[in-house]
Every structure is written in C-alpha cells, then in structure tokens.
Amino acid sequence: MAEPLKLKAKSASPGIASGPAFLAEEPQAPSAAERPDAAAPGTIGGFGALEKAIDISIGELEHLAEGADAESRDIIDFQIEVLRDPTIAEATGARMQGDENVVFAWVATLDAYIGELEAADEEQMRARAVDILDIKNRVLGALAGTPIADFPPGSVFVGKDMEPSRFLAHDWSKGGGIALFAGSTAGHVALLARTKSVPMVVGTGRFSAADGDPVSVDGNAGAVILKAGGMLIPPLAPAQAPTGEMQIASGELRTADGVPILLSININDPAEIDALDPATAGVGLMRSEFSVTSIADAANEERQLAIYRRVLEQAGDRPVTIRMLDIGGDKPLAGLEDLPALSPGPRGIRLLLARPEIARVQARALLRAAVFGRLSVMLPMVTFPDEIDRMRELFREEAEKLGRRALLHRMPPIGMMVEVPAAALMLDTFGSAAFFSFGTNDLAQYLAAWTRDDIDADAGKAAPAVLRLIAQAVKLTVGKPVSICGDMAGNPSYLPGLLAAGLRHFSVAPAGRHAIRSAIIGLNADGTRAAGE
C-alpha cells in the first residue's frame, strides 16, 4: 500500500476530520437517458424563463435560510440581494439588446462581476467572487433542471473552492471536513466552517485523489493527509501529443501483413465510455452536442467540465477526441431560437465563430478538462484554414483568462473534421490543424448534393467518389495524424478501399468494433485479402 502523503496547507477552521474524499469538481453528469424532463427541448425561453429561474433560486436560498444562524442568514441575504439587484437585470438586458441570447447575457453579466471581484486588491473582496459564482451556477441549474447535488455525509469535500449555499445545504452533523486547492480564510465558507466547527484547510495546491479515498484534514496544524497515497499535480503541463501519435496498446491490432492499425470508438453520451475495452485505442470522436443539448447547458462551464472530465478519467491513458458543438442546420440547440431549424444554414465552426459566447464557454471547459486525460479537440465543418486559426486564438484568449484566475488548464491539440469537399481537396493548406479525421456522412452528402432527409440518398452510390476523394486527401496531410470516424469506417465492405487510401486509424460505433476488427486482420495494409482468406 502506498505511503500516506502529507500536504502543507493553511488552516481556515480548527479541528481534525477524516472521511472518504468527495471530488467537488466532478458533479453528476447524467446521460441522455437520465436527463430530467425540465431539460427537454423548448424549455429554455427568453427573459421570462430567466426570471423564473431567478425566482426558483431565490426560493431555494430562502428555504436554506429557514432556521439558519445569524451569520448564515447574512450570507444568504447577500446572495438574494444580488439576485434581486436591478442593475444585474439591466446589464443583462443591455447585453440582450446587443443580440446576445438571454442565458449567455446572464452568464456574461455575472462573469464580469466575478472578474472584478477576483481582481480586487483586498482579500475579502476577492473571496466574494465564489458567492457570485454560486449564484450564477444556481440559476443555470434552475434553467436546465439540474440543481447542484449534495454530497455524502461524513465526506471530506475536495475542490478548488466551495459555494456558501452548498455548505449550508449539507448536513455536517455526521462529521466531515473541507480541503480546498485554493480558497481563502476570509471567505464566507471559512467563516461558516468556523461557526459550525467544521475542520477546513485552504491553499493545498492541486493534488490527485479518487472519490472515496480516505483523507484527513488537520485544521489545527494546517495539513491534509492522503492515506491512500497521492501526489501534487504541477500547476502547468505541456500540451499532449495529437490523437494519432499514440503507441499500440497491449490489445494491438494488425493487418495480415503486420501493419499496426488503431481502432477507437465513437460516443454520443458520457455513459457510452463504458464500452471502452482494453482492445480499443481510445475515443476517436465524442459528439458533444448530444450531451450539451440546451442553451443552459451550453452556458454552463461547470456542467460541461463534469461531462468531459468523466470521459477523460475513465479513458485513463488512452486518448479522447471531443468534437466541439456541431449545432445549426438540422441540429438546433434547444433554447437558442434564432438558430436555423433546417439546413442549409450556418453550422459547426462557422456558427461557433458567429456566436463566440457559446464557443468560449466550451473552450474553457475543454481547457480545464484537458488536465484529466489525453484530450484532443476537433472542430466541426471546417471549410477554410482561417477558421482554425480564429478558433485557436479564441482558445489562447480563454487560456490566458483561466491562468489569471489560477484555474488549472492545458492547451489540447486542435484538429479538424474533414467533411466539406472544399477542405478535403486543400488539406495541405491547413497548417495549423494538429490532425485530421474524415467524417464521411457529411462528405458523402455534400459530394452527392443530398439533404439529410433525402429518401433517395444511397450511400453505396456515393462511396466510390468518397473513397477517391479520401485517397487524394490523405496524400495532402503531410505526415499529420489522420483518422476516419464516419459511418464508412464501421462498414467492413468499405475497409479495403479505406486501407488502400492509406488510413490506419478507424473510429467506429461500439457495436461495430468486432466486425471491423475481424475484417482488418483478414486484409493486408493495401486492402487486398490475405492469403487463405
């Protein structure tokens, strides 16, 4: 068993507590099947929906205040006062007049408030920032129907910081403590912890732990003891290698003539990560739009972080490629009524660049999630090189903001889906793309001039043209990692042509792995059948 690790910290509330760790930065990220009815399409409306969410939040806070002591009541009253502050509503309304969606207008208004507090000279003012963050996330939870859940009694809360309302909603009578990577001895949670004699330390620095690991908090000496062992996580880390640059795992796959092939899975939902078996190289495509289904989700950085973190941590040391929101056209985002409901229309990267408030929240969540695994980010529907350059700049800007807030993050490799014929023909001009992945569904659609709902569409008829285009495009990738994640990758009948085109990394639906694996081992790397097959 690993030796216990003792970390120096700053005492915020005296006392000693031991219990299983609760990792606060991993809130529940329900699967699509588990999503509440309140998050169904059409529930996120205009300013009226925001007003209703604020009223729900005020009601929740008033319920917390019932029977609370004077100091707790003062903190809750402050949060209620902020929610009722007319200047907050006016600032939100002003952003809406600038053609900003109501949910993102609310987020931007509160983020600006948080930024001002975090930049204050006085520690007491900086400590107030978490109070406003608490309000922002509570209202977003009410909008999406996903309130912040409590954690098990007797646990040691581990996280960057803690919201006052979360402290007040928890039953501390069964023990437990608090260990914060950052935090403040002048913050409201520290004040509440001293009032209720809950042992608490702050400023530990980020450390590794798993949910349920035994942890001790020494609020007298200012220390945290990780009884299962652990380590401090460096504040900065280099970017990971792109998805294609990976070693063949113990469950390696080779063609009949010995050429290594990578086989990954496509997932639409965090729960599908359970299908990642030892013989699978990783997640070649996670379609984030199937987990971020409403405008409230798209505006909720913490919820997105939880979704991505769950997938990355379960993938372990295997790479995960998450595609940014491919919304627009035939995939509208519930609650953003001005998106076109039917194709054609702005979609994918063009829509994200046109609505940067959506892209910035997702970029921050992905940057923060990248420290938990081997993340690569894929951009959807890229047509021109400057679209990648503009999105990379947006990521750099958000990384700088996270750095100023001392939030751990890492810049992931950023690549692109190859699903627009104009891009496929010009891949040698996409110098800033870290990797390429062919999306054959849209590639076939645009090559054959079909619509998604065309009853006469026949993928088989378009396949020869798609295969020829892929073969030409692979030659233009100039040594960068390249894969295929569209439906053709999971169809054994197309495998000879894809191998002959030079593809060596296939990402398929979990149900299609076995058929593709069996087909690969019966073929040579040039697509010809092995002797005896």
TrEMBL record:
Gene3D superfamilies the UniProt entry points to: Phosphoenolpyruvate-binding domains, Phosphohistidine domain, PtsI, HPr-binding domain
UniProt domain Phosphotransferase system enzyme I N-terminal: residue ranges: 10-128
Segments of skewed composition (Low complexity): 29-40
Residues covered by region (Disordered): 1-40
Protein name: Phosphoenolpyruvate--protein phosphotransferase
Domain PEP-utilising enzyme mobile: 151-222
Limits of the PEP-utilising enzyme C-terminal domain: 252-520
One Pfam family from the record: PEP-utilisers_N
Keywords, in A-Z order: Kinase, Magnesium, Metal-binding, Transferase
UniProt cofactor(s): Mg(2+)
Protein family: Belongs to the PEP-utilizing enzyme family.
